[in-house]
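A reminder from the course coordinator: this example appears on the midterm review sheet, so study it carefully.

Given structure:
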């Protein structure tokens, strides 16, 4: 494969603070048995990319543990494979503050210059959940002759949520306008945070801009150079299902969206499987009083209550008489007898007491932090 992969694992960590106080964003559980990073990593491997660097900043122990056995992604190799790229030991690194993508990419310079020899680099944000083949995007990038190719979706409806990059393009998919941090209108293209760029070009940009104290990749490089006519951008339209997880509400809505057949079929394809760490749990157990309607239930679960329109991760226990509706419940949590939960996100290792009543809104779910008792 002519590409090396770089994954930004901590975009929007601040907006997902309910989950990222002690974990990397890429390690957030999703879909019952996966982590967010699994989708970015699996898409690369399924596209033939076997050299991948994961940029991490803080709280990345859980991500290290999840990715420690790289054989699930066929990346346990003597040459290349998967590498975690932590920040340099600086005051900025200790505070966890990121000055921008160029600042993070500076930590990957040695990787890009010495370990990776592929002529192109694929930059991917872990907050995007999708299933795509990057080989077609690379071919389109080479054929376009542009400096950068950005992967994007064409929006059919306007959105009130700010998108990192909003673009318009001509009939040849060459970008004609480029805006940052603004809502997308119907007919415009919303960036997925994925882009393809020449490795040598990227190395030169990192060295040139960071040496002058410039660290924002999109604003200070892409938009600045594009507006001055010095950077050409090719747009590669992705027409498959794409979920973006930029805050808690989007996480909740995206988690429940996989219960829809069209979304599940688009994300979990037999020809391009999403790989994850195997834990060899026992099969889920359903008691005599279990009632289940439209749910994703991972292995190791114990269900003896009512589950409706929910996503349950490994080892979740729903006790007798408990009712959970429109909920996302993460690994190892227990919902006690007679408890009732609706529109709730329960993090890992939470204990919900007997008879507890918790109810949020579909647009504003209740979030129970990791390891607490309610």
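Designed residues:
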């Amino acid at each position: 494969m002519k590409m090396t992969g770089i994954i930004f694992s901590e975009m929007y960590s601040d907006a997902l603070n309910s989950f990222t106080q002690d974990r990397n964003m890429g390690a957030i559980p999703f879909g019952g048995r996966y982590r967010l990073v699994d989708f970015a990593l699996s898409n690369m491997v399924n596209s033939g990319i076997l050299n991948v660097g994961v940029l991490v900043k803080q709280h990345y122990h859980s991500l290290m543990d999840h990715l420690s056995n790289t054989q699930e992604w066929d990346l346990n190799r003597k040459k290349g494979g998967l590498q975690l790229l932590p920040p340099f030991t600086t005051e900025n690194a200790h505070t966890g503050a990121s000055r921008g993508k160029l600042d993070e990419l500076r930590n990957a310079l040695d990787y890009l210059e010495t370990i990776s020899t592929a002529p192109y680099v694929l930059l991917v944000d872990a907050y995007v959940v999708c299933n795509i083949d990057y080989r077609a995007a690379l071919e389109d990038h080479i054929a376009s002759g542009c400096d950068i190719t950005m992967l994007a979706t064409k929006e059919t409806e306007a959105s009130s949520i700010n998108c990192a990059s909003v673009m318009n393009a001509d009939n040849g998919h060459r970008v004609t306008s480029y805006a940052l941090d603004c809502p997308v209108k119907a007919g415009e293209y919303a960036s997925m945070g994925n882009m393809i760029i020449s490795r040598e070009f990227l190395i030169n940009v990192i060295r040139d801009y960071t040496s002058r104290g410039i660290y924002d990749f999109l604003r200070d490089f892409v938009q600045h150079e594009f507006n001055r006519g010095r950077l050409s951008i090719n747009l590669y339209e992705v027409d498959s299902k794409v979920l973006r997880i930029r805050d808690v509400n989007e996480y909740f809505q995206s988690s429940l969206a996989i219960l829809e057949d069209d979304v599940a079929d688009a994300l979990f394809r037999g020809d391009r499987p999403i790989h994850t760490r195997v834990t060899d749990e026992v099969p889920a157990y359903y008691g005599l009083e279990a009632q289940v309607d439209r749910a994703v239930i991972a292995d190791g679960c114990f269900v003896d209550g009512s589950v409706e329109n929910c996503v349950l991760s490994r080892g979740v226990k729903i006790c007798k008489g408990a009712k959970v509706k429109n909920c996302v419940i993460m690994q190892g949590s227990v919902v006690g007898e007679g408890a009732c939960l609706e529109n709730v996100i329960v993090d890992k290792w939470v204990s919900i007491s007997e008879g507890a009543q918790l109810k949020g809104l579909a647009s504003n779910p209740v979030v129970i932090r990791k390891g607490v008792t309610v």
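Residues 199-210 form the longest helix (12 residues). The longest strand covers residues 189-198.
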